[in-house]
Amino acid sequence: MTRRTLNTVLALFAVAMLAELAWMGQAFAAGAAEEGHDFISQFSIFLLAVFIGYYVVWSVTPALHTPLMSVTNAISSVIVVGALLAVAVEASEAFSFSGHWLAKILGLVALILASVNIFGGFLVTQRMLAMYRCKDR
Amino acid sequence: MSGDLVALLYLAAGVLFILALRGLSSPETSRQGNYMGMAGMAIAVATTLAVAQPESALSWAMIVGGIAVGGAIGAVIARRIAMTAMPELVAAFHSLVGMAAVLVAAAAYYAPEAFGIGATGAIRVASLIEMSLGAAIGAITFTGSVIAFAKLSGRMSGAPILLPARHLINIALVIGLVACIVLFCQEQTPAYFWAIVGLSLLLGVLIIIPIGGADMPVVISMLNSYSGWAAAGIGFTLGNTALIVTGALVGSSGAILSYIMCKGMNRSFISVILGGFGGEVAGPAGDGEQKPVKLGSAEDAAYLMKNASRVIIVPGYGMAVAQAQHALREMGDGLKEAGVEVKYAIHPVAGRMPGHMNVLLAEANVPYDEVFELEDINSEFPQTDVVYVIGANDVVNPAAEDDPSSPIYGMPVLQVWKSGTVLVNKRSLASGYAGIDNPVFYGDNTMMVLGDAKKMTEDIAKAL
Q: ipTM score here?
């Protein structure tokens, strides 16, 4: 493939992406207006948290970058709240292939995976941090 | 519980997570920070249970059982895992976050009422977009991390796998993915949802397979970042502040680590993603001829170091592979007893993940105030009598500074060659992971001590 064709493909790709994004943005705005969806306030929280994360993480000492990765891993498992909501869905007594049963089972698997991560992540971080010692000890 | 109280509790959890990361600015405060993270997680889980109010015994059994099973597995892994295996453990954990994001998105799709995002077949468009983005990034994180795990744990070769026209395939996949998201938002049928997941799973594999072993520190930080964005996507779907804040924190954390790793290798993020660098393939090996090297024994090395007044130890991935950190600490202790000043110098990309060497040295009880980063110690090499390079290669390669034709030209390196004597421990005279020959090995002031890092270091310690 020549560089020229690659560039053309990339340009077409970029145009397509922009069109999609515009469509999505419009859909977002429409949805937000229709149902009073609090997208903007959530997005503000998100954006500010990105900046907090930026400054906090730059202040992490490079020696602790591995614990940083394991602890970020543990806290991103707060996705467990979604799993709990799904497991708590009330479904009919007998098992059936209904949406609610599916949600419950998917939620259970997600709950197990997230729990592995929460316990594993925090405990392995604790184990690592306990090893960092100063000279006088 | 009132809606405001719930929102405040989730916000509190988010703040505790910020403090958990803040604690890592120094080792003294880090342990406390970790407890704050745990507290935040406990608040988030308790609040969710109070909100969801599961009624049936079955739901409670599933919740308690799920946490017990997952928690037990996690706790056992956390206790048993060897510190040298941290990179693959972190990769495996990232894959779990990714999978959990996919599953939660699917659950939200099948039971939208429980998540307050509309009714089946009439889910809000904004929620559908958030859900599909969360699922897509989650799925990419999942398969990407599985591949990274396989490469890091040696279950798969670290060599890059380059498919012909792989960029075109990836672009086609992304276009297909976006098309599926658009159709999913319009039609809301399960087929499109699973198509999004399927395409993303495939994309995750294709993104990571062309990236070679030497670029793994970037990949693992990048996947860390992705797992955060996936969590944030789900956070928007659920309208959950704790999840949005955490996702943003983790996302930017991983992005910063990727940036630091790229800078440590003087490579652009794009060139890492495009792949093809590193792996065990030997590149242009200098002149290809055997140049004369000075070989030495453990006794020679011990004699040189014992009679030095300042020694700097430069560990690399080879130390991790040989599990030589404890032997290295013993050697360091022996030198300190002999009145030698010992310091450790760590390159940002030494090892297979950010901070890999620091953890291993900490495990071996090396005090962290003897361990220095590149910028802090590089000026000290000229005043150093002996440098002991153990299992490191590319990070001490002067070609990065003076050979513009070198693939690693421009990468910041530890200037070990400026010291009195350089002792290089390697298994053999082969080139490093980047497949580049290292002029330090043939330097006049260099002595090669060939052999297994652990055995050689033990022998030196004995000979002291």
A: 0.88
